[in-house]
Amino acid sequence: MATESTTAEKQSQEVASAQSSTRMNIDIEDSTPRPAKLRRDLQGRHMQMIAIGGSIGAGLFVGSGRSLAVGGPASLTLGFIITGFAVLCTTQALGELAVMYPVNGAFYSYVVRFIDPAWYVNTSCRYALGWLITLPFEIISVGITINYWHEYNIGIWVAVFLTTIAFVQFFGVRGYGEIEFVLGIIKLVAVAGFIIFGIIANCGGVPTDTRGYLGFRYWSGDDGNHAFRNGFPGFCSVFVLSAFAFGGTELVGLAAAEAQDPQKSLPKAVKQVLWRIAGVYVLSTLILGIIVPNNSPELLGASGANTKASPFVLAFKIAGVKALPSIFNAVITISTLSVANSCTYGSTRTLQALAQYSMAPKILGYVDNRGRPLVAIIIQLLVGLLAFISYSAQAGTVFTWLFSISGLGILLLWASICLCHVRFRQAWKVAGRPVEDLPFRSPLGVYGSYFALVLIALILVLTFYVALIPPGGSPNAQYFFQNWLSGPIALTAFGLRKAWTSDWRFGVKIKDMDLDTGRRDTGYTSRLSQEEEKGKSLGRRVINAIF
Question: According to Swiss-Prot or TrEMBL, what is its membrane topology (predicted)?
Answer without folding.
Answer: Multi-pass membrane protein
